[in-house]
Write a structure and sequence with these properties.
Strand content: under 5%
Oligomer: single chain
Number of strands: 2
Radius of gyration: 24 Å
Largest sheet: 2 strands, antiparallel
Strand order of the largest sheet: 1-2
CATH architecture of the largest domain: Up-down Bundle
Shape: globular
Distance between the termini: 9 Å
CATH class of the largest domain: Mainly Alpha
Structural class: mainly alpha
Order of helices and strands: HHHHHHHHHHHEHHHEHHHH
Number of domains: 2
Amino acid sequence: MRYARLNPFALVGCAMDALTNSITPTRAQDRSAPPPSDVSAGVGLSGLFGLFVWIAFCREYPLIADALALPGPHAVLSGPHASLTAMVFTVLPMVAWSLLVDKVHRRPTTGIAWDAPRKWGEQWRVSATKIVGLWATWAIIGALYAMCRWYWEGQFLFAMEVIGWAIIPMVVLSVPYVLWIDRVMVNPRDHAWHFGAMLLGREAYDPAEVKKHWRAWIIKAFFGAFMISILPGGFQAVVEADFAKIHSDPIQLGWLLINLLFLIDVQIGTVGYLVTLRPLDAHIRSGNPFVAGWLAALLCYPPFVWGVIGNGEVLSYEHNVADWGIWMQGQPLMLWLWAGLLVALTGMYAWATLAFGIRFSNLTYRGVLTNGPYRFTRHPAYLSKNLFWWCSTMPFLVTNGSAGDAIRNSFFLLCVNGIYYWRAKTEEAHLLAEDGKYREYHAWMEQHGLFTRPLAALKRRLRPRGPVVMQPAE
């Protein structure tokens, strides 16, 4: 079946019917707990601990430098390279927990047989073909970076600097890594091998595997560059914050905590895009094959978001609005309560990313997550993010008193909410097709999810139960 020509709206309808009507009941519906998660809570928490250690060190560096009489300026470490170093302190504890505690490298889902390695000379041709595929992929991605103008201005300049610096070590280290991993892989002819075989033309290859290869690498290249580009801003805001001056101000304290939570989200998320290693069971099994899924996701990120969502764009919901603190000025209790609400919503958003550990990324299937906030709703990040926008922007309140502006703002924010609903359904369609455990989790959530159960019951009441058939493209 070819997905590229599917009508996006038909796809969403089909996915909704699959979610509500076409799932066969399983024993999971009668259980008090969802299926076990592929990622333990300890992975994300260990990374959070390492991140906090580095933030504390950067904030206290002037005192440390004074005590040790270190050369150079004795100022807080809040620059871009300090934010990049934070990733090291985040990823190392997560990798250690995954290997030493969860022992993920022993899972059959890695596709690795550690106890039956091949001899060094048996797979070198396979490895050479795979290396050709990888190097060609990186060269093509580099050319695309060079041609796309938005990567060479603004926040993306830092990402290009980092990627340019990293490419030589990647090329060099890829040789021993591929030679080593191919010795123990059950099937070393993976997606990268098929792309290399297509380029060399010496062996038969599977075009479907080549497509899977490119879906995975386009996701990593596009979102990886974006995540790296936004690392410095949030890190600097947190490290340079003066708690003594803002602890009694609900607005400033609220925004500081929100920035800290977004920093956690960005740091953990960036690690997820970059650490897709098979021995950690964090490899990308598949990228979303639905064009509708890609369209819905890309609309939410630059450069596409710059012309669609935001102030002055097509779906502008911030026309003549004011900060939430303005509307509650002179009401200390409301300011504290509202700041607490916004922090709680951002906390759920960060928790949703933290729960992924080293497996976070958009548009991919990398295992099934059923713990943390995913025990209460299938899409805690989308739910909390969209509620945050309503509560922080308050599009229905406008500074010029225009009912038209209030209605337009609210309508366009509802459109943005619709895009995220669309994203959620296309992601579910992808995972439902990939993994029986996700189908079991989905069925369990329909019956037990704190937020999902009442919504599913309401949806069953409002929608007919007639089947909808997905037609293959001609």
